[in-house]
Structures are given as C-alpha cells and as structure tokens.
Amino acid sequence: MSSEQALTGGLTPSQLADFERDGYLVIPNALPPTTVEALLAETHTLLEDFSLSDHPMTKFSTGEKSEHVGDDYFLSSGDKIRFFFEEDAFSPTGELLKPKARAINKIGHYLHALSPPFAALLDPALNPDLQGAGTSTGSVAVGHKESHPAAVARALGFKDPRCLQSMVICKQPEIGGAVPPHQDTTFLYTDPPSAVGFCHRWAPVRQRFVRAADGKSGTEFMDNAGPQFPVGEEYGEGKKGGSQDGEYVMGEVKAGSLILIHGNLLHKSERNTSQKGRIIYTFHVIEGEGTTYDERNWLQPPAEGFTKLFRG
C-alpha cells in the first residue's frame, strides 16, 4: 500500500481530486477474485431459483416505453429481493420469449442485507479478506481493504454512511435495456444531497458520463470540514453542469473495477445488443448524519433503518 493511500484510508489524494473534478472515479481491481466469484455464483443461483408461478411479471422500465412506477411489486421491494424483467423479454401478447434467467433486467433492492454473499461485501466482520476496512484509524491494511466500501466512504468524508439500496443489473444479451440520462440524487434525495453510487463491474463495459461544454462535469465540492455535496437543483438537465449541450465522455471500464458515481453526475448506459451479458452490482450510499431523507423518495427506510457501513 502506498504512503498516500494510507493517508486517506481508501482513496489517494489524486483519486479524490479526480472524483471531485469529474464526478466519477474508476478503481481497478477493487475486489478479490474470490469475492467476485462468490457474488457471481449467488447471482446465478438467484436467477435460476426464483419462482415464476407467483411472479406478477413486472418489467423494469426506464420510462422510454412504459412505467413501472405505481406497481406495488416494485414500490415495496426496498426490503426484499425481487426480480424485474427486461421489457423486450416478452412478445406483444405477453409471452415470455427467453429462459427466465436470461430475461431478468435486475434483482433488487435489499441484496446487501438478505443475501449472505452480498451482505459480506459491506460487513468486514463477515469477510476475512476485508477485516479492518473503514475503521476509525483512517488507514487500512494491505490487500483489497482500501477498496472496501467503508474505507472508500470514509475517504469521501462520510460520517455515518448508509447503504439504502442494492441491485444486480444483468444487461442481458440482445435485449439488455438502455439507461437514459439520469442523476441518482433526484430519486435518492437527502437534504443536503449526499448520494454516491458504488458500481462493481464484473465484465468489461462502456459507461457514458456527461462533461459540460466548459470541460467540467458539473460536480463541485465546497471547502469546509469535509466534502460536501452541492444543491441538486443546480445540476439538472438544462441547468449548470447538467446541460445536454455538454459532451458525454465514454468511460472504458475493465472487469473487476469499482466505479464511484457522484449523485449529481448525469450518466447513462447503452442498450446491450451483443451476445454477451454484462452483469454488474451496484448499491447507493447516503449520509446518515446531519441530513434529512426526503419522505417523497420512492424508497423509504425499513423498520431497522438503512444499513450502516460504520459509525464513529
């Protein structure tokens, strides 16, 4: 581990500068191969074992064709593991055209609590390879601990990071749906804004991030005791930093990488028409200390509250 890595306990000063400038950061080789294998095996087990007999056949829609908003199966999934189909997995008459494991758009949204392999990714106590990450000492040991979510969150300035949703996005061969331009802060809103996406890529992929005409991403931090997030309304489409006049920058991401995505960053991904799937695992973290979680967000906390990464 480099000396500058030890200073932040998760990210180097240059990595932090890149994130603050660009609004995203790619961290190669973020997970041990054994962890990736365990998560992929769990994903394939979930896809093969879920039942169609009692499934409402809810499709996950980004809004381009139809809406799933208002569907109770989706809206009540915050503390459950549920399966959402690709829109193009069905014929015009509603017949499923693909084997069920090749028809799912995503699995969500409580994998980080209900699935032991995914829970182990967030809880160092459950994963010996990651023990010690994110501790109050502000440094981590050798290996992959510096890429552990708790260590990365501490480096970003979180005091009480909470994981509020997690999902496997399958990007199925031939029918994997596109994700249009969006900002995570708009549907996981806190006051002040604090959302950060953690995206683990298990296959090579291209991701598009917006860069405004002035060369900036539209994501800035203010000088104070720790990193702070700007007001979300300032960075919507047509506003400062979120204008469609900006240029989308293509990010090439290798398998095994972690992408951090600032909640205000406008980003999108393309439809998958290839013969290969592109499974990714993504979860979102918000600040639990000194913020107010908006009661109008579709996702509301379970009885036990959102999952803590660490405290103190």
Structure keywords:
312 residues; alpha+beta; Jelly Rolls; 8-stranded antiparallel β-sheet; 4-stranded antiparallel β-sheet; 7 helices; globular; disordered N terminus; Phytyl_CoA_dOase-like
CATH homologous superfamily descriptor:
q2cbj1_9rhob like domain
Q: Which regions contain 5 or more consecutive residues with pLDDT less than 50?
A: 1-8, 129-143, 220-245
Shape: globular
CATH fold description: Jelly Rolls
Rounded radius of gyration (Å): 19 Å
Distance between the termini: 24 Å
CATH class: Mainly Beta
CATH architecture verdict: Sandwich
**How many structural domains in the coordinates?**
1
Secondary structure tally, helices = 7
Which structural class is indicated by helix and strand composition? alpha+beta
